[in-house]
Each structure stands twice: as structure tokens, then as C-alpha cells.
């Protein structure tokens, strides 16, 4: 069987509905010879007669009646599918999809978006707030235009552009004895109960790895970590952006000797071509927050 084309099925359905080539041609806005050729080619491909002419009208043969049901269903499905694909693509072009981590979504991103929207008030932004593992996955699968995230865990194959640094510090209950010191160093932490958390940099073999051995507990959930710190017994280390600023019960003091930072940057696949809206946000961040 030869390949059947969409325009042949459209011509067939139009002739069946209208009862003639001239009417079908007017409906499809094509010439009458084009309709005639489409029907002849379709019948030749199927090796079946689809119409008989009776009293200046074309009527379906039994084979034509069977084909009509399936042709209608196929064309309906075809048109709905293409309409959906078009709408999805239009929505994708209009929407800026960004992945990020919770601490960046809560502290840094609101300021970026607010400033950006003043310049581009009609912009639409979809923010995916998740763990760094899933941020990497979203970028790899091309589910987002780019990510704003910590760079030390980003896949080496990604295009990484640093924008700012986020300093680590001690976080504990407001009146914790550790804050009696004027300055805090990494050595000062060794005499306190330490809670490890998911923001620690596993690539740092000096400071963080040394504290890993002293940590009595590891907590990944930020709400659980805050609750434990509020008891006043333990301390942890967080980057500044991860510190819950609105919590009056906790305090953040930067660590010194040495000061440690996590790098935050823009991360995307090197083969990703940003749409105009996403490119505007990408460049806006580079120009204003780098």
C-alpha cells in the first residue's frame, strides 16, 4: 500500500460530507481538480472504490463508509494533537523556566524577579524550587531554561557562570554561649554539639570534613533543623542565604580563619538556545548580580 497523505483524507471526508467535488473544493479552499486528484490517488493506494456517482451526487460505497468513520477519527485526533503541540510550544516560548534551591528561592530570587519585572512587567516565570540533585536533573533533561544554584555540585558538562558568593557562618539559638566570642573560627566549633546539614560542601576536605567526624546528628530538612537549633543545645553551619532571617530566635555569625563561601551561578546546558524572554532574564542577572 502506498503512503496516504493527510490532504487525501481531508478531500475524502469533504466529498463525503458535501456530496460533490465542487462543494468539497469550496469547503477546503482548493481547486476542483485538486480534489479529484486526491480522491483518485487515495482509491489507487487503497485499491478500493470509495464513491459512486448517482444523480449528480457522489455517494459512498461500503468500503467508503467504513473508511469515513476511521478517517474522521484520525483527522480529529491529528488536529487536536497539533493544536496541543502548538499551544505547548507557544506557552514554552512565553514562559521562563528556572530551577533553583530552597535557600536561593527564599532569599536571592525574590529580589531578582522583582527587579526584573520592573523592566519586563509582562514576563512569565515558572520557578522550580528543589534539591540540587533535582536541579541538575531538570537542567540535564532540558526541562528548564537555566538554573540559579550552587555550582560545586553542578554537572561538569554544564555551562556554569558564577554570579556571587555566599558566606558560611554559625547558626544557633540567639543566646547560645558560642556567641560570647567576638569572632568565630572553625576551631571554636569543636567543643559544641554540631548538627550536620545538606548545605555543607563535600568537596572541602579541610573544614567541613573535619566537622563531619564531630557532628552528632545530620538533618536535611530545614524546618527540622530550625526546631532543633531553637532548643538552644546545638549549633550548625549554614550559608547566609540559607539562614532563616525572619526567625528572631536564631542568630547568624560569619565564620573566619578562614572565611568560607559557596559559589552561586547560572547553570545551563551548553546546547540550550534560550528564548527571548529567558535570555533577557539571564542577561539581567549577569548585569546586575554578578
UniProtKB/TrEMBL annotation:
<dbReference type="GO" id="GO:0003700">
    <property type="term" value="F:DNA-binding transcription factor activity"/>
</dbReference>
<comment type="similarity">
    <text>Belongs to the LysR transcriptional regulatory family.</text>
</comment>
<dbReference type="InterPro" id="IPR050950">
    <property type="entry name" value="HTH-type_LysR_regulators"/>
</dbReference>
<feature type="domain" description="HTH lysR-type">
    <location>
        <begin position="4"/>
        <end position="61"/>
    </location>
</feature>
<dbReference type="InterPro" id="IPR036388">
    <property type="entry name" value="WH-like_DNA-bd_sf"/>
</dbReference>
<keyword id="KW-0805">Transcription regulation</keyword>
<keyword id="KW-0804">Transcription</keyword>
<dbReference type="Pfam" id="PF03466">
    <property type="entry name" value="LysR_substrate"/>
</dbReference>
<dbReference type="GO" id="GO:0003677">
    <property type="term" value="F:DNA binding"/>
</dbReference>
<dbReference type="GO" id="GO:0005829">
    <property type="term" value="C:cytosol"/>
</dbReference>
<dbReference type="InterPro" id="IPR000847">
    <property type="entry name" value="LysR_HTH_N"/>
</dbReference>
<keyword id="KW-0238">DNA-binding</keyword>
<dbReference type="InterPro" id="IPR036390">
    <property type="entry name" value="WH_DNA-bd_sf"/>
</dbReference>
<dbReference type="InterPro" id="IPR005119">
    <property type="entry name" value="LysR_subst-bd"/>
</dbReference>
<protein>
    <submittedName>
        <fullName>LysR family transcriptional regulator</fullName>
    </submittedName>
</protein>
<dbReference type="Pfam" id="PF00126">
    <property type="entry name" value="HTH_1"/>
</dbReference>
